[in-house]
Amino acid sequence: MIQAPRVLALATLLAGAFAAPALPQAADRAEALGDPARGLALYRRDCAFCHQIGEEAQNAVGPHLNRIFDRGAGALEDFRYSAGLARMGDDGLTWTYETLDAYLANPRALVSGTRMSYRGLRDEQGRHDLIAFLRANSDQPQNIPESAPTALPRQPDLSAEVLALEGDEEYGEYLAAECTTCHQRSGADAGIPAIVGWPPQDFVVAMHAYKQGLRPHPVMQMMAGRLDDEQIAALAAYFATLGE
Amino acid sequence: MTLNRRLFLASATAVTATLAAPAVLGQARPRVIVIGGGAGGATAARYIAKDSDGAIDVTLIEPTRQYYTCFFSNLYLGGFWEYENLGHSYGTLAAEYGINVLHDWAVGVDRDAKTVSTAGGHTLPYDRLIVAPGIDFIEGSVPGWDVSAQDVMPHAYKAGSQTQLLKHQVESMREGGTFAMVAPPNPYRCPPGPYERVSMVAHVLSQRNPTAKILVLDPKESFSKQGLFEEGWARHYSGMIERIGPDFGGDAVEVRPDSMEIVVDGEVQAVDVCNVIPAQKAGRIAELAGLTDGNWAPVTPTDMRSRLDEACFVLGDASAQGAMPKSGFSANSQAKVVANAVRADLTGSRLFPARYSNTCWSLIAPEDGVKVGASYEPGADQIESVSSFVSQVGEDADLRRRTYEESIGWYEGICADIFG
């Protein structure tokens, strides 16, 4: 089931490489080279914690990815981009098949100073699949009904009360000292992701995702594992105030 | 520097002093002295100064102007980290946090008068004293070795010129020579440290001197991350490393610096480089202050307060606190609990429950990183582990590389957290 499309995609790739004298258009290439269904799986694994896509997608830790194709880098007005990404946008970087491919392969190589804490995807076919998936969400003018299931990141099981908890910022500041042994207050993020300036609710969701074992990192599972709902809310409230 | 009568008396009357300790609420600018500017002391000083917004007068006494971290010094040995990048100065703590950084040796503590005396002739009063001197070596623990032999057989277990010396010795070792390490008995600073060091030396030798041998003489039956290290050694440095445990004389090693020989189980062996890591105890000033019981300074698990004096805290390697390993991460973690407690003592600020944690990353070979960690809470008598994790044998190369990258992120993070 997985084998057949992979072989086909590879065959297409080879045929494309040998036969086509001119590069096909972005839309053709994305779907020809990659499998959007496999791209969805990758998207859920690697992207969905920070980015939303599809119907009702909003900016979260990262900007929403609807209509990413041909969008200028750093172009969404209501998202606060890193200086590095904004600068590249000003310099004329636009998201095309080639630029997305390079960015996904090694984000910092394309955009120095990007806040996207993604190590990059070395597997070329994986990038083709992921880009094909992104492409499938880029045609329509807005909010794409058929991709609704991807609008929600993998959510931990959380009650509305937990999400609505008001965080005690001063307590959060004390608790945050445990985080800042590794995560820098300045927002620097080499090797370890930045956690400042997140929308509080995203922070709460992420911590509960570690606590419930949905996110995989052992240090974070341990750290989150002994935080109660109030402590998580306190941390979310405090870290949201940093990096403003 | 010898124990004077007053100090001895102070020690004897510690319990009385504890009961009588006055609250200093309301006093203008209460004073905190921190002895030792490492991962524990500098963090405590910074957090107290930062969070009290100038309400507390903080003095940090540290002899060196440039502090070299022990953590990551093995990576320098292995050629993965620059020496300059191990060094940190105290400029930011002084300039941005208003900490009085005094480059001097603390040589005595009068706990009755609540003063610290320094080699430079100062006598400084305190309301709360934080003692974070790290480790010293136990004399005579390795027969034939004392500190005067450190230029021949370096310990390199306090980072700086010792680390540079050991690196130079490893790199200039004769072809096919033997690097020996005398490993320390428990408890000691950085449990995986000696074995990460063996890995880094093996990496250097496998590149420059592949017929060389490494001999580890170990008084311990087992050691931290043992399965991970041994699996990595077999994979990366097959046949190069031999470890002799206590069953075969690893616990009774004599060294002869003059002739570059070691004696194991009665057998004399010539070696080319010999890294002696002696048995350890709390930094000397903790003992001079009368805060030690045996080799270490006992503290309460709730806030690292000395069991012998309520106005004193001991943190980091020098403390006897229970289950936490002696590490820079632990000291940094403990320092934040101490800072919170000291502020509450002196300014009545909110007191939050203690939370402790530790993670130790180790590098086995290029991009082959592993880690071990745990979280801790105060128990009835000592700090206890509540949960833990460790890297697994057989993890894929991507995960090991990510772990290594993470350790670099951690280094930058903790240094920013310690030194501002």
Give me the secondary-structure topology.
The complex is a heterodimer of chains A (244) and B (420).
Chain A: H1 3-19, H2 26-33, H3 36-46, H4 83-90, H5 97-105, H6 107-110, H7 124-136, H8 160-164, H9 169-179, H10 200-211, H11 218-225, H12 229-241
Helix pairs in contact in A: 2-7, 3-7, 5-7, 9-12, 10-11, 10-12
Chain B: H1 5-12, H2 14-20, E1 31-35, H3 41-52, E2 57-61, E3 66-68, H4 73-77, E4 87-89, H5 91-97, E5 100-102, E6 106-110, E7 115-118, E8 123-125, E9 128-131, E10 135-137, H6 161-171, E11 178-182, H7 193-208, E12 213-217, H8 226-236, E13 241-244, E14 253-256, E15 261-264, E16 267-270, E17 273-276, E18 280-282, H9 284-288, E19 297-298, E20 312-314, E21 319-320, H10 328-347, E22 356-365, E23 368-378, E24 383-390, H11 397-419
Parallel strand pairs in B: 1-2, 1-9, 2-5, 9-20, 11-12, 11-17, 12-13, 19-21
Antiparallel strand pairs in B: 3-4, 6-7, 7-8, 10-18, 14-15, 15-16, 22-23, 23-24
Helix pairs in contact in B: 3-10, 7-8
Tell me what you see in this structure.
The complex is a heterodimer of chains A (244) and B (420). Chain A is an all-alpha fold and 244 residues long. Chain A has helices spanning 3-19, 26-33, 36-46, 83-90, 97-105, 107-110, 124-136, 160-164, 169-179, 200-211, 218-225, 229-241. In chain B, the strands form 8 sheets. Chain B has a 5-stranded parallel beta sheet, covered by helices on one side. Chain B has helices at residues 5-12, 14-20, 41-52, 73-77, 91-97, 161-171, 193-208, 226-236, 284-288, 328-347, 397-419; strands spanning 31-35, 57-61, 66-68, 87-89, 100-102, 106-110, 115-118, 123-125, 128-131, 135-137, 178-182, 213-217, 241-244, 253-256, 261-264, 267-270, 273-276, 280-282, 297-298, 312-314, 319-320, 356-365, 368-378, 383-390. Chain B has 2 domains: 5-136 and 281-353, FAD/NAD(P)-binding domain; 147-278, 3-Layer(bba) Sandwich (FAD/NAD(P)-binding domain). Chain B is α/β, with parallel strands linked by helices and 420 residues long. Chain B is built from 11 helices and 24 strands. Classes of the chains: A mainly alpha (244), B alpha/beta (420). The A-B interface holds A 119, 170-171, 173-175, 177-178, 180-186, 188-192, 218-219, 221-223, 225-226 and B 47, 51, 329, 332-333, 336, 340, 350, 352, 355, 357, 359, 371, 373-375, 386-389, 402, 405-410, 412-414, 416-417.
